Q: What sequence folds into this?
């Protein structure tokens, strides 16, 4: 790791924010925020969900306007009218929530962000060059709707880099990369910074901030609560600045002796009609009562398809490949599988895990109607759903305006807590969840992980599909890796390392068709089949 | 400078105000139309909006016209909420008239009290069967239900014509394309003596209440709302998309069929080739002006009925073409769609910026 170089004091700041205040009808998102970024500086913005980080970044990028306050860009006062204006100034942003058109291809999406009318063929070539140079594999001709969350993020990053920005804003960029790819990205970012580009880096991974960032500004409740030099801090001390108290630690507890098999995948193969999706090939896995099994992997290697096959959103042609509590259920729909005692949490919260425009009480009905007896005689007992939702809000400390609040009014982390709570409170015998803490702040993430461990300790079988290796190592008893639609044999988490799993993510595990890990020395991350 | 600014949240108030605004704009535009045609706009509006309801008979005619609109619209709303776009209520309405007429003609000599209920059932089944065609094609072959249901309207029209010009033609009807008049036992009872308002109005009000209970209180109605708002969430929850399509289309078809029954067993008393008065298409506008909400549909159907009656008035007294009704319907939908922009956006007066 190269030691962060403090930027020279003589250079004029690239970006200065003075007393930025943003008031929404119901909430003050930013309250007198000051921020200064010099050329070549990698500046971290730390804060919990709802601390006002995203609002501040949107103001800089011209998505929203501040209620008051000034912004100076390279010494001149500016009012950024729109993202297009921001890009003109030389500001690029990679959003946490993607701003891509799903029906267009990657290259078309990139073209839209560029001024003028670029030649698509030439642009595709440039995309390939940039993606190769920065270790962000992207196929420019694929349609965005067929890309996984991780691949979409890569498109966003590549799109920004193509415009040679002088300030790059990155909102949680590493959550979907392998450890090797994160290192590669950091090299890129350091290289960019050395070339004079300023970087605003938002992340909840404190060790990353420590490794990468020169300076950090901490936000809490819309106000700046502190500045620090991450190199001189510890993750624990930064967490304290951020959440105002010590970081909660998960109590993993002893691994239980494995109970009965709750989920068995017996040679699950599934070819999808979508030419860009990953086919699942001969997947075998047993998940026992009282254990957490994790599935690691780079996004786009079949995680979505696997979850849909287990959940029943994509029913199979045959019954036997998916066995839930001993029942061959490959052809059942998700409702029938829930009746067997399975609950599951998808990676998209808004629009799949919850209906955006509906209240939390109505969203409780979505999956809990049958198990919690909200239905009698074909009609809904709304008060029961409301009581259940209120219970869930309380038990999982969901910050919201109550059970009547619309799902879309919640921050991502709070909605995730609600969805996890909704599934966990149904006392499932088997819980399958994807990306349980994606984009969730440290406090909430620790809480969600602890809830999963508690659930396991109560005898539930838990399967977690996650792209965050640290998380899997923190909570899982056994870990398997998915690559190109194939699943490695699971290994006890205590007997393996992040490095090993990182190599396995390329599809190179002992006995895999792609050969032994030693066959290829470089752990280049492979991409979903083209 | 005036500009549109997205709202943080969809405005509930605006979603109710928008139909009112649209109605007001329709009136203003209507006055402009009258002026352009060289008529006195105030007199035009008076004839259009007030004279149809100046007495009890006028009001009863209004309710009479509103009856099929309400029935068709509430059925359509069930499907629309689940994004099932049944545009063919007009055809399902006509099949409803055919089903009901079949029963009436077959039991022409009978005076059993079961004839009317049987006609209701026959109308509903025939309308639902017509709607089952797009449902089947949609679920089996993913054929677009908008096109299929719309095209079936014209098939239904020709089918009705064939019946009244051919096998069902009244032998004593001087060769007019119409069936024999129904017997008394096949006619809906009149609600107010001296008017044409019949029991179909009660059926329509019942349908609105049933529609409310179904859409807002039942589990199936909830599933349909989810399917309409977030298809992926419905899939995740395990709600069958095909079932939503079937329920949406069959409900719309059955309701339109009952509306058709109430026309032939009500004011018409027979089936003719002029049975399609555009209720099925107008009901689409009613459903949207009424915000797919039963109470809103009640109000919107009265407004739409007023436009039908007003059109007849200005045709009679101002010598304007009958299509003036259609113009007003079109204006109303046009302004509604325009006003709906303000549900998600607001006007802001921003200072000009560099």
A:
């Amino acid at each position: 790791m190269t030691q962060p170089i403090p930027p020279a004091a003589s250079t004029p700041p690239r970006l200065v924010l003075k007393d930025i205040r943003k008031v929404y009808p119901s909430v003050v998102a930013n309250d007198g925020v000051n921020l200064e970024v010099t050329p070549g500086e990698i500046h971290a913005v730390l804060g919990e969900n709802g601390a006002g980080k995203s609002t501040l970044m949107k103001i800089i990028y011209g998505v929203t306007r501040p209620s008051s306050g000034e912004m100076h860009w390279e010494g001149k006062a500016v009012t950024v009218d729109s993202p297009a204006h921001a890009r003109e100034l030389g500001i690029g942003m990679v959003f946490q929530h993607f701003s891509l058109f799903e029906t267009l291809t990657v290259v078309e999406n990139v073209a839209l962000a560029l001024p003028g009318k670029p030649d698509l063929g030439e642009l595709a070539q440039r995309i390939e060059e940039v993606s190769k140079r920065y270790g962000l594999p992207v196929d420019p001709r694929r349609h965005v709707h067929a890309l996984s969350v991780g691949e979409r993020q890569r498109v966003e990053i590549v799109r920004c880099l193509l415009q040679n920005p002088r300030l790059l804003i990155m909102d949680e960029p590493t959550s979907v990369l392998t450890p090797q790819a994160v290192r590669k990205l950091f090299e890129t970012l350091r290289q960019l910074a050395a070339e004079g580009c300023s970087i605003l880096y938002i992340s909840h991974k404190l060790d990353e901030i420590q490794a990468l960032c020169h300076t950090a500004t901490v936000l809490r409740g819309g106000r700046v609560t502190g500045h620090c030099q991450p190199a001189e801090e510890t993750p624990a001390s930064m967490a304290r600045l951020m959440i105002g108290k010590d970081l909660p630690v998960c109590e993993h507890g002893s691994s239980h002796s494995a109970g009965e098999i709750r989920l068995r995948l017996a040679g699950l193969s599934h070819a999808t009609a979508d030419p860009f999706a990953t086919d699942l090939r001969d997947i075998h896995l047993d998940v026992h009562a009282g254990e957490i099994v994790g599935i690691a992997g780079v996004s786009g290697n079949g995680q979505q398809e696997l979850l849909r096959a287990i959940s029943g959103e994509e029913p199979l042609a045959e019954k036997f490949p998916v066995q839930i509590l001993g029942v061959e259920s490959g052809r059942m729909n998700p409702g029938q599988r829930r009746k067997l005692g399975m609950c599951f949490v998808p990676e998209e919260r808004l629009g799949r895990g919850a209906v955006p425009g509906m209240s939390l009480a109505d969203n409780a009905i979505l999956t809990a109607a049958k198990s919690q007896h909200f239905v009698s005689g074909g009609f809904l007992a709304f008060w029961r759903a409301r009581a259940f939702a209120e219970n869930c809000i309380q038990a999982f400390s969901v910050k919201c305006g109550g059970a009547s609040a619309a799902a879309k009014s919640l921050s991502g982390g709070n909605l995730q807590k609600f969805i996890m709570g909704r599934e966990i409170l149904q006392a499932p015998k088997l819980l399958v969840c994807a990306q349980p803490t994606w984009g969730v702040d440290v406090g909430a993430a620790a809480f969600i992980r602890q809830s999963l461990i508690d659930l396991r300790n109560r005898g539930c079988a838990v399967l977690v599909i996650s792209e965050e290796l640290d998380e899997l190592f923190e909570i899982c008893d056994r870990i398997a890796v998915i690559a190109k639609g194939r699943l490695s044999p699971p290994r006890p988490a205590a007997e393996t390392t992040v490095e090993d799993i990182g190599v396995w993510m390329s599809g190179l595990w002992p006995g895999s068709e792609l050969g032994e890990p030693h066959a290829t020395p470089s752990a280049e991350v492979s991409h979903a089949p083209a | 400078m005036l500009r549109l600014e997205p709202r943080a949240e969809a405005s509930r108030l605006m979603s109710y105000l928008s139909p009112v605004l649209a109605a007001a704009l329709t009136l203003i535009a209507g006055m402009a139309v009258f002026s352009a045609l060289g008529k006195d706009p105030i007199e035009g509006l008076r004839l259009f909006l007030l004279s149809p309801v100046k007495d009890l008979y006028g009001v009863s005619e209004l309710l009479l016209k509103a009856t099929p609109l309400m029935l068709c619209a509430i059925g359509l709303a069930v499907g629309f909420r689940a994004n099932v776009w049944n545009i063919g209520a007009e055809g399902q309405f006509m099949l409803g008239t055919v089903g009901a007429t079949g029963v009436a003609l077959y039991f022409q000599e009978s005076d059993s009290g079961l004839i009317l209920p049987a006609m209701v059932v026959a109308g509903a089944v025939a309308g639902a069967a017509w709607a089952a065609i797009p449902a089947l094609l949609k679920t089996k072959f993913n054929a677009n239900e908008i096109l299929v249901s719309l095209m079936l309207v014209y098939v239904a029209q020709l089918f009705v014509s064939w019946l009244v010009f051919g096998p069902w033609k009244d032998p004593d009807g001087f060769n007019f394309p119409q069936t024999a008049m129904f017997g008394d036992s096949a006619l809906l009872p009149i609600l107010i003596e001296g008017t044409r308002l019949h029991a179909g109005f009660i059926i329509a009000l019942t349908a609105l209440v049933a529609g409310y209970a179904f859409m807002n209180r039942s589990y199936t109605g909830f599933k349909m709302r989810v399917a309409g708002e977030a298809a992926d969430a419905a899939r995740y929850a395990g709600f069958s998309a095909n079932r939503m399509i079937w329920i949406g289309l069959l409900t719309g078809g059955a309701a339109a069929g009952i509306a058709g029954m109430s026309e032939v067993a009500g004011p018409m008393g027979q089936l003719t080739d002029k049975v399609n008065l555009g209720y099925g298409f107008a009901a689409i506008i009613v459903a949207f002006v009424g915000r797919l909400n039963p109470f809103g549909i009640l109000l919107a159907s009265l407004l739409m009925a007023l436009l039908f009656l007003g059109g007849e008035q200005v045709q009679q007294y101002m010598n304007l073409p009958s299509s003036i009704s259609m113009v007003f319907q079109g204006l109303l939908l046009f302004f509604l769609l325009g006003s709906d922009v303000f549900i998600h956006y607001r006007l802001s007066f921003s200072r000009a910026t560099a």
